[in-house]
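Tutorial handout. Part one gives the primary structure; part two gives the three-dimensional structure as tokens.
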Amino acid sequence: MGQRAASLALAAVALAGCQTAETPRVDVFRPAYAGVETRLLEGDLVNFIVAMRGARDDKDVTDYAECAAAQYALIRGFGFARHVRTTVQEEGGLWSGDAVYTVSPDLPRGLRTIDAEVVVDNCLAQGIPTV
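Part two.
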């Protein structure tokens, strides 16, 4: 019985080794950015409509809108933007975001402000297109 117990223990160790092998990830993030529509609402208030496929969740869409807002601010000669709101929806694999930002030459008041130059650099590093 001692030899049988040793054989079972050895088999258990071998099986445990097999069970700890890492399973390769198959959920690769391959977004397809489908464009940005920019609308000047009033003064420094700007609306960005973005669309993409392959988003993992709402954050991917809001990141895309933020990248568009940051680039827009720089194009207009501003260094900053402040997030007002973003709504995201998904239908048939197409994700869309409707975001509103204010743009300004100086750091605006509020908690959801962005330094446009820093954000654009980060977007480029992550492969997210800007306007």
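Part three, for discussion. The chain has a mean pLDDT of 87. Residues 102 and 130 are 17 Å apart (CA to CA).
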